[in-house]
Amino acid sequence: MKIRLDQVVKTFDTFRAVHGVSLDIESGQLVALLGPSGSGKTTILRMVAGLEYADGGHIYFGDQDATDIPVRDRGVGFVFQHYALFPHMTVAENIAFGMKVSKTKRSKPEIATRVDELLRLVKLEGLDDRFPGQISGGQRQRVALARALAVDPKVLLLDEPFGALDANVRRDLRRWLREIHDELGITTLFVTHDQEEALDLADRVVILDQGRIVQEGTPAEVCRAPNSAFVMQFLGDANRISATVRDGQAYIGETVVDAPTSLDGPIDIYLRPGDVDWRPEGDGIPATVIRVLDRPGGRRVLANVEGGTALEFDVAPEMAVRSGQVGKLSIKRSRLYPA
Ligand SMILES: Nc1ncnc2c1ncn2[C@@H]1O[C@H](COP(=O)(O)OP(=O)(O)OP(=O)(O)O)[C@@H](O)[C@H]1O
């Protein structure tokens, strides 16, 4: 089921939370709404669900204007971070709940068969008699997904479903959700403020700021070509160096580097940790090492460049670097934005 938002607006009292958002979600795609707290992600999701009215614009499910379709007739399944399971129902009863109250009547054996299928799908066979208090947080969210899938939704809406779980469990559930999505192909809208989660999971990422879409594209597109300093910074791991461009050359303190840009005057140079080369001596931007951080994937160095800007960059794990050392940085890749 394709979903289309056309100039959707939402105002709470006098505060406009969503400013004319237009978005196409193709049938079968998994799209992540990504943005900082308060950027309007949940409000957009709630309008798609029918839990909140749009004050302006239209939301289409396929060719049908969904504006006046009530929640229970929209064919959407939800999983929310705090959309708790019913504590006094077993796992199996929780999953069966939606089928029992649905307009589509199913016999008891039909419901039992479907519950078994879903338990297999979410890899929780054998836990059907447990109560939510007797399973882990990650397992509870898998039950919540099974419950959402039980009524064969045309659209799946997930609001920070793994938000309360620890990093390793989140990573596992992310992979698992992607596998389930690939198997079922349900159009899915996923809200998160976690960049890595959005980039790992989604076919397309929609980045929001203050109720507006600021960029959308595949994970590769938004990572390789962030269209603003905001997106560059929000996607994470961005270092910023202030510079001044004159005649195609950037002046960083006393150092001059080539700056192939049409910009002139004060600019910010943005770099990711893999975008610079470090050498103990030679040409380049002088930098003083403040700390060396050893991580499972390699070494990260925190250094100060001229003018006092702190910068983080990666070096090979075997590279000899120590605090206080002065070396030179050369820029391999960067993005330049007006300051
Ligand atoms: N019912 C409401 N009444 C008044 N203001 C609201 C209401 N719901 C949301 N808002 C405001 O609308 C803005 C967008 O909120 P929303 O929950 O959509 O953001 P979000 O991007 O999902 O944030 P978070 O990541 O913190 O959940 C916020 O400034 C919020 O305070």
Automatic annotation (TrEMBL):
GO biological process, one term: quaternary ammonium group transport
CC per GO annotation: ATP-binding cassette (ABC) transporter complex
Domain of life: Bacteria
Segments forming domain ABC transporter: 3-235
Keyword Nucleotide-binding annotated: yes
Pfam family, one: ABC_tran
Keywords annotated in UniProt: ATP-binding, Nucleotide-binding, Sulfate transport, Translocase, Transport
Family: Belongs to the ABC transporter superfamily.
PANTHER family: SPERMIDINE/PUTRESCINE IMPORT ATP-BINDING PROTEIN POTA (PTHR42781), SPERMIDINE_PUTRESCINE IMPORT ATP-BINDING PROTEIN POTA (PTHR42781:SF4)
The protein, known as: Sulfate/molybdate ABC transporter ATP-binding protein
Organism whose genome encodes this protein: Ensifer oleiphilus
Lineage: Bacteria, Pseudomonadati, Pseudomonadota, Alphaproteobacteria, Hyphomicrobiales
